[in-house]
């Protein structure tokens, strides 16, 4: 039996590859907490999570002061027990983003260790449901772009082989959103999938109005049309919208997803491995979705989600937003719009430790 003897905690800021603005916020920088777990037999596991510009120092403090010390002496194979114990240890701050992001950094490290110990890629350890996953891009669809750039970048994505593209909505007037999207649809044709994301910008009445206006464009989904804590509003919208409703990036526990599923408040589950608290709860949500015949299309973190999507038969899309290029040595493999999970044991993320060490803003050692 292995025992955890030490943890190394890092915080790294990664600037976005392009300007990213949606209806309510801008992506300032990816604060990236990284956890490296060291065991007494020399084995290790590496995990991470992220923010889009705020809260990173709070995640690090929670890891350093409250979570990491709980792991010393634990058997890293007992992933489920550790996740449950850490959740209960931080019960006063759960459910919430900071706690979930901190739990995720540890939990992904434990699963990395577990897959490496089994000498298997994570996607095969978890079931190996599919060897390729379709990819859509979000990198050309930001709200600040003029219509001409929106069309140009979506056409470029189509030429590059992507199977679809997600565009932000939330302009002051519905007619402007419709005009921008109609121009894109006219350019790419009917077979190229278009998704839209409102980033929780609308009231229920406005979301219903916009969904009606956008319906003729044959969209794959309307994402986060109203605030994520408005379960009743999403249920009302899902019952009346001709566009499938997608939610998940702003939900932080399996229980919150269960409420959405029970109330039939969405058709697309966008569970985010970092925001839900790690791989352990991510699997629960994805399997729950499968039991209810719902698709899983996770939010962000493509370098990790490519393996999780490949493990689940109901994972239908991977979101393309490259963000780890500066601290890894090999990007994920995408050919003709299909992503292939890594063949290396563990998470399969090829960390560039020289670059990581140089860019670390914070380092802590727990033993």
TrEMBL record:
It holds the Pfam family MR_MLE_C. PROSITE patterns: MR_MLE_2 (PS00909). This is Mandelate racemase. InterPro entries: Enolase-like_C_sf, Enolase-like_N, Enolase_C-like, Mandel_Rmase/mucon_lact_enz_CS, Mandelate_racemase_C, Mandelate_racemase_N_dom, RHMD-like. PANTHER family: ENOLASE SUPERFAMILY, MANDELATE RACEMASE, MITOCHONDRIAL ENOLASE SUPERFAMILY MEMBER 1. Its cofactor is Mg(2+). Keywords: Magnesium, Metal-binding.
């Amino acid at each position: 039996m292995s025992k955890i003897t030490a943890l190394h905690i890092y915080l790294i800021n990664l600037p976005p590859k392009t300007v990213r603005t949606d209806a309510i916020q801008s992506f300032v920088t990816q604060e990236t907490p990284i956890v490296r777990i060291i065991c007494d037999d020399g084995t290790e596991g590496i995990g991470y999570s992220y923010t889009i510009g705020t809260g990173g120092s709070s995640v690090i403090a929670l890891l350093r002061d409250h979570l990491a010390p709980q792991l010393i002496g634990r058997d890293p194979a007992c992933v489920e027990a550790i996740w449950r114990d850490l959740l209960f240890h931080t019960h006063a701050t759960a459910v919430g983003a900071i706690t979930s992001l901190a739990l995720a950094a540890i939990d992904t490290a434990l699963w990395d260790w577990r897959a490496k110990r089994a000498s298997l890629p994570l996607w095969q350890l978890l079931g190996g449901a599919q060897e390729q996953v379709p990819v859509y891009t979000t990198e050309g669809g930001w709200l600040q772009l003029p219509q001409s750039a929106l069309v140009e970048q979506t056409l470029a994505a189509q030429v590059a082989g992507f199977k679809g593209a997600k565009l932000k909505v939330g302009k002051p007037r519905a007619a402007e959103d419709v005009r921008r999207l109609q121009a894109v649809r006219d350019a790419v044709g009917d077979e190229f999938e278009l998704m839209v994301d409102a980033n929780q910008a609308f009231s229920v009445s406005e979301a219903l109005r916009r969904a009606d206006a956008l319906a003729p464009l044959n969209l794959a989904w309307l994402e986060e049309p109203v605030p994520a804590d408005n379960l009743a509003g999403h249920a009302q919208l899902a019952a009346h919208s001709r566009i499938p409703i997608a939610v998940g990036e702003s939900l932080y526990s399996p229980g919150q997803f269960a409420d959405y599923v029970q109330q039939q408040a969405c058709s697309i589950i966008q569970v985010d491995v970092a925001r839900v608290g790690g791989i352990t709860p991510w699997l629960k949500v994805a399997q729950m979705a499968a039991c209810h015949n719902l698709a899983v299309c996770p939010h962000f973190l493509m370098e990790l989600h490519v393996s999780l999507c490949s493990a689940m038969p109901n994972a239908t899309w991977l979101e393309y937003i490259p963000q780890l290029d500066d601290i890894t040595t090999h990007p994920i493999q995408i050919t003709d719009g299909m992503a292939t999970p890594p063949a290396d044991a563990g998470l399969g993320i090829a960390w560039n430790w020289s670059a990581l060490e140089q860019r670390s803003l914070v380092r802590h050692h727990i033993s």
